[in-house]
């Protein structure tokens, strides 16, 4: 008899409930979220009856991430249970619909017991490194954009029309130096603009350093996804980092639905129609979009496919969406091949 242990993780505590194959509760435990959390849970689980155990952690990629990884490192089998699925089980469970930690943990365990297709939690590797670096790239570029906008807002008060939308930090610095006959208020504005300019230069250095780290991490990962035309180190970091384990997607269609490149059906009255999907992981969608746009700029098979769709009467946007789907399929095949090579 295999014991399934559901865990409802929180910032301060973790609640675990163990059930058998008939959903009978075998035990319950709440431990503080501290350095001994894994030891306490495993000691408690070792005293339960059964020939084996499976841990089911709610949101193993979110709030339950650290605990799930600690269990995996300890040699335990861990299942990632989506919060939405656990919530549905709790609501539909007769007699156990009250919202509290033990019922939540029991719902997580039942979801793992009755849904064999749920993803296993794997030990973190280069995928997590690339995701961290990709996230940092987003943060830095967003901060730089913010600093540039603030610089423009100050300069428009110092110079008619401000400065061009695309101007280098050196050019902006030169414009500030060349400003003459400024009164006291304008002088303070110029000093304020220079602080934003300093922020931009600092962020440029941080972005350059982060790009170097990304290139190094992509090389170490030994991925073949960069063989897809238009996928450089930055795009590859997003594709690998935000896809995670590609084997959790059974087919390229499932992957396309996840990244939002598959159209959404909205049929009614016997008429089958499809429209652009605004769902899915938008970071993955943007990375695939960048690869597709790059293919269109040059003489590539992707460009020829794009032209073919235009000749069929598609608009440019529709042709680009079709190309993005082809890029998604190509990326999926590369990621699956990389995963199989790594585990063989």
Description:
The chain is of the alpha/beta class. The chain folds into three domains: 2-114, 2-Layer Sandwich (Nucleotidyltransferase, domain 5); 126-221; 226-343, no CATH class. Helices cover 56% and strands 11% of the residues. It has twelve helices and seven strands. The strands form two sheets. Strands 3-2-1-4-5 form a five-stranded mixed beta sheet. The model has no long low-confidence stretch (mean pLDDT 90).
How are the secondary structure elements laid out?
Elements: E1 2-9, E2 13-19, E3 25-32, H1 37-46, E4 52-58, H2 65-73, E5 78-81, H3 83-92, H4 101-114, H5 126-155, H6 169-177, H7 184-221, H8 233-243, H9 252-259, E6 264-265, E7 274-275, H10 282-297, H11 301-311, H12 316-343
Parallel strand pairs: 1-4, 4-5
Antiparallel strand pairs: 1-2, 2-3, 6-7
Helix pairs in contact: 3-4, 5-7, 5-8, 6-7, 7-8, 8-10, 9-12, 10-11, 10-12, 11-12
* Portion of residues within helices: 55-70%
Shape: globular
Assembly level: single chain
Question: Class by helix and strand content?
Answer: alpha/beta
Low-confidence parts lasting 5 or more residues at pLDDT below 50? none
Enumerate how many helices there are, as a single number.
12
The Cα radius of gyration reads: 26 Å
Strand order of the largest sheet: 3-2-1-4-5
Report the sheet with the most strands, covering strand number, pairing sense and barrel closure.
5 strands, mixed
Structural domain count: 3
Rounded mean pLDDT is 90
The proportion of residues in beta strands is 5-15%
| Amino- and carboxy-terminal Cα gap | 31 Å
* SSE string, helices as H and strands as E: EEEHEHEHHHHHHHEEHHH
The total count of strands amounts to 7
